[in-house]
Amino acid sequence: MEQIHWVRHRWQQLVAAESGRGRYSAPDAVPTKSSPKLHNAQLTGKRRTVIARHGPYQHEYDSVSKGCQGNGIRTTKYSLLSFIPMNLFQQFHRVANLYFLFLVMLNWVPVVEAFQKEITMIPLVVVLIVIAIKDALEDYRRYRFDQKVNNNVATVYSGKQQTYVDQRWQDVRVGDFVRLSCNEIIPADMLLLYSSDLHGICYIETANLDGETNLKQRQVVRDLPQGSELTPENFHSRIECENPNNDLSRFRGYMEHPSNARVGLHNDNLLLRSCTIRNTETIIGIVVYAGHETKAMKNNSGPRYKRSKLERRMNMDILWSVVLLVIMCLTAAIGHGLWLRNLEEASFLIPDTTSPALAGFYLFWTMIIVLQVLIPVSLYVSIEIVKLGQIFFIQNDVDFYNEYLDSRIQCRALNITEDLGQIQYVFSDKTGTLTENKMVFRRCTIAGVEYPHEENGETAKSLSCKSLSCNRSSVSLHTLTGHSEGEGEETPSPTLPRHSAFSSPMEKDVVPDPFLVQKLNCLSSPLFLLTDASMELTYIVDFFMALAICNTVVVSSPNQPRHVVQVPEVSRSPLKSLEDIKMLFQRFSLPRFSTLSPPHTTESTRSFTGRLFARGKPATFTPSPSPIPTKREHGSWKDELIYEAESPDEAALVHAARAYHCTLRGHSLERLLVELPGMGSLAVRLLHILPFDSTRKRMSVVVRHPLTKQVVVYTKGADSVIMDLAELPKGAEQSESRQGHIREQTQKHLDNYAREGLRTLCIAKRVLEEEEYEVWLKRHAFAETSIENREELLLESAQRLETNLTLLGATGIVDRLQEEVPETIEALQRAGVKVWVLTGDKQETAINIACACKLLRSTDHLLTANCGSKEACKALLLELRAEMECGEAAEGTSGFTLVIDGRTLEFALQEDLKGDFLELSRCCRAVICCRSTPLQKSQVVRLVQDQLQVMTLAIGDGANDVSMIQVADVGIGISGQEGMQAVMSSDFAISRFKHLRKLLLVHGHWCYTRLANMILYFFYKNVMYVNLLFWYQFFCGFSGSVMTNSWVLIFFNLLFTSVPPLLYGILDKDVSADTLIKLPELYKSGQNSKAYLTSTFWLTMLDAIYQSLVCFFVPYFAYAGSDADMLSFGSPINASSLLIILLHQVIESRTLTWLHALLLMGSALFYFSFTLVFSVVCVTCSPPNNPLGVDKLQMSQPLFYGVCALTTMLALLPRFLFQALHNSICPSDTVKAALMDQLNPDDYCRRMQRWNQTQAQIKTRSLVIDVEDSDIKVPDPDFRLPSELKEGSAATGSLLS
Q: pLDDT band at 405, cuts 50/70/90?
């Protein structure tokens, strides 16, 4: 009861103050400590107290701000002092590095020592140094960026000088007052305390934060004086707010004044770091979060790191290598023990008290050191280098460059490039991903009458075709793309700044419908009230009034694109027949057209509205007496304006209203300036804006009508919501009432729009009585002043107002396809990738778009899942599964496509139904999820990914796609019209959907094939070389001795054979890019992991073992019976193994260039040069052996070269013969495609046509399709072609013809 009294008291205060309302505005004050609202105003949990650094409480500043960070940022990992210890600490987090550190330490134990202590350290030291250099370069780059940011200058209040002075950003502290001017960047998260704008607002651009170029409005904290600039010394208030967090859309707290009154603080009061001040000359704020505590830095997570599928497979094979190493060491240990036991009395043995068992145990660890190369420590470093090289070539591919945006592909995840070649499922958003997200006003229906805008549709087709350069392009619906050669929009210069968000020529150029223009011209006629069409005209005027004002558009002038057009105080304009126009709008609220009675306002209420919404100075705009032109010439509008909208839908609707001279000329916090045909400029008092949210799926504005003085709610939103909220006629049958007729006709038009692929929005209004508005305002004021549960209370308040709406009409907006989307989806499907579309659009719209982009084919069997309960969903899924099984048995069915709506999907994702849903969808060629929420998108991706164990890719462009992008194995963000949220959460960022085709089919295929072959090659060369040492143990009593000096042994894998595999992993090209694009079926080899199968791994191991046997025993028998010593015997073995390993790579390589030849020959020459010099100058380099002159002597004998040649030929002959026979008898598709690349152009074209004909015959089977005349012959008489696809097929046929 006390709260009711308090609300009543506050309302009386508001009436006395005669203050207006703004966006989600709240009362002028909030509860004091003595009020009942106090407990609700408390912040729960941890919080931060902020006081002015140079204000009255500065003596408390140090204690209050003790835990707050400075504003300097540091993204570097290291400092000069901490680099070495921290880098070593991080590198030894890798198991491989710890393993080799263990070997180094083990070699220092005398009883198991195998080499010189320093030599065993070399591989580990080299790896650590290489990684440290890379980390140091990356960290230095971050350091330079930090210095640049920290040294930026801001104007900060100085307590000593009693004025504002320039300070570096890093010197700003929490509690500082910062003054900024227009176009300056905000240095820290600040609470807005003063704005030079009379209404206490400022605009910020968040492009540096989220990529959005549209302006966002922020408000000064309530109850602060705005007449003069804020004086920091007089700021006596304390600020209590939540602790730093990364939620960009939420800020909670309150400001406590000396009088103990508290004012709620919300996100509209907060200016975020990195944003830019626009449209405001001066603002002053107090810093609440600084440095790494700002929301921008809290969201800066840096590059994304994932573990690829190939890397996980490689780790398993490394474990097999460990098992192989243990087996070899155990064999040597057991053999050494048995050898010692059998030779206990041998005279050549040095007497030792060590038992054979203990000696075998010691030898086990010695062999671990000797055979350490079997575990490829350099493989991890090589993979990182190769992936950096692959990313370099991907980022510098000119085909990914977008000239208009001046952007190229971004590789944000550095270690999953090979996953691009193994994708099996693609989950795509629709709007902004498959389509342009540039809306064109196409059609509308008002009061049940449709206005087709046929000329505007032809213009849209022409613009679409010209922009897409589709002279011989995609097959799509006529409303989405076209084939006209007419003039289209000019491509803006990439160097020009983007002054306005969502204001492309496509959105601006709207050709009015002549019939609708004729009706609107009646407003200029003095006899329009006498006609029967006057009632319909009220609907039309209100419809365009809603289009013009129901938005958050910022109106700017063309000469100063970032400065808002100010809204003057407009008095009663000298319009013609103003009272008649007033009567026109009053007629719209009569009982027979509305459920609301005409407002019976008392004199006191009229006095209140007169004082509250008084109009002062005369209007500067005069009405246009001339009728509306039916066609607008480019640039013919007088007083050109720039609209900056939050979404392309808003921009399209505002431009559409302007095409009918219903022009929004100014937009401020409390007032709108609208020019209507025949009426001139009218000042509309803006009471509230109820912004769009995904729960309500609509937005509303509450205004005081400038003529009737009534409170009117204009609402626009999704048709599924607005049609349910529209009022039902009372006292009459639905079919006999005007509103019933409008609802029925509008629904028909909406269905037609959806079938044509248009995005639909419904427009409605509601006229409130004064008493009704006052009751709602009390509750809304209570919701606005709440600190806890504020969002929930505001949602309830908005829903309470948006009921019993009067339906005005609906709009149809075309969102044209991006260029080459049909070709891209068709190529992905040919590549074996299943494409799912997850969208929030209507089912009919999604089906039509899917048909246009070739996701749906005319021969597909369409399965539709729409149900209202869980039980019905379960039954439907089983029914559809049975229908699919029957269809699979019948001939002629090319595939199934499932279309499921959001409500049914919610049931299907539940635990007991997800199995049935997955079983059904996995058998479908494509799945379309309509009306799906962001959460449902991520749930679908996770379900398919986890249950089917497949590689998934999610692609989207908006914030609603972030969740599924992060869940998928590979996330692709499109830098489009909806900001950069998707890009910042992605692994790769592209500018157009068509780039996905080359990214997967070409670069994905190359990256996977190259890396898989390189990893196998590393395993091969390590096993091959290590086995040479193992075979020698059988001839040296398993003593752990080696037949080569330790320097060559360590450098063999570290230097002599390390560089060629890197070039192999970066530049090897099995098939050309053109062929991979033309033959998407080649991508399936990566999906099936054909380059790196378990069988492939073990065959490679067996081949390595065979080659090691040949490489060891050919020299063994060649030198048998000679006086060659151990090092002389090992010299041809080392040389032969090097040649075998290098030539093995030549056999496996698909590309050989001069660079490959240079590195291969360079590696061989480096080895021979090193060993020759080593044998000449080294005397005591490898004790106890003396390699002096050994290699020099061997290289001077013909036997050495004969043994090397014979060994190399015998070792590689099986591999060479196997490759030749396999590629001749049963060549893979990749080999066939590689052979096609070698043909001349004519033969290449003939071979390509033959390939495609063969693939088409396999797919179509007995189905005959004549696309040109849409003659579809199917053997199965029960085959059902949906009507949507029939229309799509007809459109396809007309376009191809």
A: confident
Q: Which residues are annotated as a binding site for Mg(2+)?
A: 429, 431, 957, 961
Q: Is-contact 193 224, C-beta < 8 A?
A: yes
Three-class secondary structure of residue 798 per DSSP: helix
- Report the distance separating Cα 587 and Cα 581, nearest Å: 10
Residue 909's alpha-carbon distances to 838, 915, 934, 950, in angstroms, are: 14, 9, 14, 18
Amino acid residing at 173: R
Residue length of the chain: 1297
Residues within the annotated binding site? 429-431, 650, 692, 716, 759, 839-841, 931, 937, 957, 960-961
Neighbours of 592 (CB within 10 A): 12
Q: What does the radius of gyration of the chain's CA atoms come to, in whole angstroms?
A: 38
Based on the number of CB atoms within 10 Å of its own CB, is 164 exposed (0-12), middle (13-18) or buried (19 or more)?
Answer: middle
The proportion of the chain whose per-residue pLDDT surpasses 90, expressed as a percent, equals 22
Place of tokens 């042994």: 1049
CB atoms within 10 A of CB 690: 24
CA end-to-end distance (rounded Å), the chain: 75
Contact 923, 862 (CB under 8 A): no
Do the Cβ atoms of 494 and 405 come closer than 8 Å? yes
Helix (H) or strand (E) holding 53: none
CA separation for the pair 116, 1046 (Å, rounded): 8
Three-state DSSP at 23 gives coil
Which of 595, 533, 597, 842 lies closest to 726 in space, CA to CA? 595
Which DSSP string corresponds to 477-509? -TTT-----S--PPPPPTTS---STT--HHHH-
Name beta bridge partners: 897: 862, 926
CA atoms within 13 A on the CB side of 666: 21
For 1131-1175, how does the pLDDT look when each residue is reduced to its tens digit (9 = 90+)? 999 999 999 999 999 999 888 888 989 999 999 999 999 988 888
CA distance 696 to 698: 5
- Is there a contact between 133 and 139 (Cβ–Cβ < 8 Å)? no
**Residue tagged active-site, from 268, 429, 509, 815:** 429
Q: What is the pTM of this model?
A: 0.71
- Token output for 1254: 């063969």
Got the DSSP string for 947-968?
HHT--EEEEESSGGGHHHHHHS
Instruction: Determine the Cα–Cα distance for residues 1200 and 5; give it in Å rounded to an integer.
Output: 107
Burial of 192 (C-beta count, 10 Å sphere; 0-12/13-18/19+):
buried
Our CA angle for 916, 898, 756, nearest 5°, is 155
Q: Which residues have C-beta within 8 Å of that of residue 710, sequence separation ≥ 6?
A: 589, 599, 704, 767, 768
The two three-digit tokens of residue 57, written as one number: 């409480």
For the CA atoms of 88, 89, 95, 101, the dihedral, rounded to the nearest 10 degrees, stands at 50
Kindly tell me the sign of the dihedral angle through the C-alpha atoms of 501, 504, 507, 511: positive
Amino acid at residue number 1137: S
Out of 608-622, 659-673, 764-778, 1248-1262, least confident range: 608-622
Helix (H/G/I), strand (E/B), else coil: 831: coil
**b/e string for 629-651 if b means 16 or more Cβ within 10 A?**
eeebeeeeeeeebbbbbbbbbbb
Task: Tell me the backbone φ, ψ of residue 717, rounded to 5 degrees.
Answer: 180, -170
List CB contacts of 560: < 8 A, sequence separation 6 or more: none
**769 secondary structure, DSSP code:** P
Task: Give the count of alpha carbons within 13 A of 457, CB side only.
Answer: 17
Q: Is 223 assigned a catalytic role? A: no
Residue 300's Cβ-count burial label (10 Å; 0-12, 13-18, 19+) is middle
